[in-house]
Amino acid sequence: xxxxxxxxxxxxxxxxxxxxxxxxxxxxxxxxxxRKRSLYFIRNILPMETPEKVKEWLDYKKEHPEHGSxxxxxxxxxxxxxxxxxxxxxxxxxxxxVCNNDVYSISYLHCLRLEVAAAA
Length: 120
Hints:
Helix content: 10-25%
Distance between the termini: 17 Å
Order of helices and strands: EEEHEEE
Number of helices: 1
Strand order of the largest sheet: 1-2-3-6-5-4
Strand content: over 45%
Radius of gyration: 20 Å
Shape: elongated
């Protein structure tokens, strides 16, 4: 049996968006749960007057890139009590989006959680 749950939530006041997919699979007596979650936050909006200003800003960012803004973590957890193995992966960083003459600074957090329960 396979069950998939998809959620897409937008928080306009907090300038936040969350996308989450959960999948549960029961196969051969094992239960696997996979949860993929992505969070996006608008940190800053930089209005530009003209497209030329946007081009100048983009050229400056190409010459002076920001290093070390991405982080990635992996953690494995084993529970003897429920015979559950869990793997957590998290990626965190930021990027820019240009829309019309506005530059949006967006931070993100991607989480992947895998749980495998042994047969009872």
